[in-house]
Specification:
single chain, alpha+beta, Arc Repressor Mutant, subunit A, nine-stranded mixed beta sheet, three-stranded antiparallel beta sheet, 16 strands, elongated, binds zinc ion
Length: 481
Amino acid sequence: MNKEFEFVIGLEVHLQVKTESKMFCRCAADYFGQKPNSRVCPVCLGLPGALPVPNALAVKKCLSLCLATNCQINKISKFDRKNYFYPDLPKGYQISQYDLPLGENGFLEFDVDSDSRRVRIRRIHLEEDTGKSMHTNEETLLDFNKSGIPLIEIVTEPDFVDIEEVLAFAKRLRQTVRFLGISNADMEKGQMRYELNMSLRKVGSQKLPQYKVEVKNIGSISVLEKVIKYEFERQADILASGKLPTQETRGLRDLSGKTYSQRIKEDADDYRYFPEPDIPPMHFSDEYLEEIKSTICELPQARKHRYVFDYKLEPDTAEVLITSKVRSDWFEEAIEKIKDTALIKEIAKWLIKDVNAIIKEQKLKLSELKFTPKQFSQLVEMLYQKKLSGTLAKQVLAEMNSTGDEPEAIVNRKGLSIMADETELIKVIKTVFKDNANVVGDTKKNPNAAKFLLGQVMKATKGKADPAESARLIADLLSKE
Ligand SMILES: [Zn+2]
C-alpha cells in the first residue's frame, strides 16, 4: 500500500432483525427462499390507505443493541419518511428514523492482537428493508417478500485507524448481535450488509478529506477487506496524480472487491425527511429500559476478557471460544465448579482441537454430540490426572460420541487405563530396545532416535503408557546401555 496516504473510514451496517413478522405488518418474515411475492400485503406493498403498525419486538431488540453498545437512548423516538423512488420501493418512501433514532453516541470495544480498541457509534436506528429487483436480459422482475423486513442501521464515526480495526469491529459486532439473539447475521442470506464510506488523506493530516466514496451492499467481511484494499490503491493513484477522486457511490463488480462508478453525487442526498404521519411517536419509560437491560447477557468482548484474566487462557484461545454463544456456553458448562486453571486450559484445548475435529468430520452441531459438557470435562480430568494418555483419551472420546456412555465406564469396559506399573513398562521398553538394536545404537548421534523408540513403546502398549513417564524411563535406560 502507498505509504503517503492514510484512509478515513466510516461504516454503515444493515442488520435484519430476527422476528416472526415484518416491521409494520403481520406478513411472515421468513422470506428467504420462498416463492416470490408470497409474503406480501397492502402495507408492505405500500398500497394507498394501508396503515403501518410497528413491530414491538423489533423495537425492543433494537433497543437492546443500543444499550449493549453503550448508546444514549432517545426516550422519545419516532419514525420518519425518507423519500426516494426506486423500483423496489414503489411507494416512494422508506419508513426510517431521522433526527430521533433509538440510540446515539455509543461505542463498541473489540481487540486487535490482544490490544483493546474502541470505535464510536454515531447512531442506531430502525427502518424497513426494501424489495428485491432481479434483472434478466430483457426485463426486471420485482419480489416484495423482503419489503418491510425489520432492519437495524448502525452508523459508526470515522474512527478506524487501520484495516485490522475495521475487520475486527465487523466481526465483534456480528458476534454481539448473535449473542443478543437480535439477528442470525447470516451473511449468505443477506442478513448483515456493510456500506463503506472511505476517503484518503496525507498521513499526518487532521482534516477530513474533501470527498467521500460510498460502496454499498458488501455482503461479507472478506469482501469488505478486498474492497478497502482496492479502493485504497484506486484513490491513492488519483491523488498521487494531483487530482481529487470523484464524490460518488460505487457498486461491486463481483466478489473480487473491484468497484465501479454507479452514481455521481454532487451534493448530499435530499431525502426530504418528515415525520411518518401514520405512526405516533414512541415513549420509553426508565422501567421498560431497565427491563431490557436486565435481559442482556454477558457479551463476547467481556467474556473473552474474563477467560483471559480469570482462567489465564491465551487471547487467541479465548477468541475461538467466543466465536459463538453456543460454543462459549458449552465451554462454561464443562468448566463449571472447576477452579484449577491448568485443567481449564486443558479443557479449552481439547474442546477447540478434538471436539471440533469430531464436529467437522461428522458434520454435527455441538448440541448434537452424544456426550455432555460434564462428561467431556470428566474425560479431560482423567487425562490431566494421568489416568489416561492422549491417545487413549481420543479413543474414549470417540466412543463417548457413539455410545453416550460415561468416560469412566468406557475406560473400565475396554481396559484402557494407563499402565501404572513401572516394572511392566520397563519390560516393554527393554523388548523395544531388543527389537530395534540399531536405533538404540544411533541414539548417541541422533536425538530423534529416542523419539522413535518412544513411538514404538506407545505402539506396543496401544497408547496405554504415559508418554512423559516412558520418555524418562527410556532416557534412563539408554544412559545405562
Ligand atoms: Zn405485509
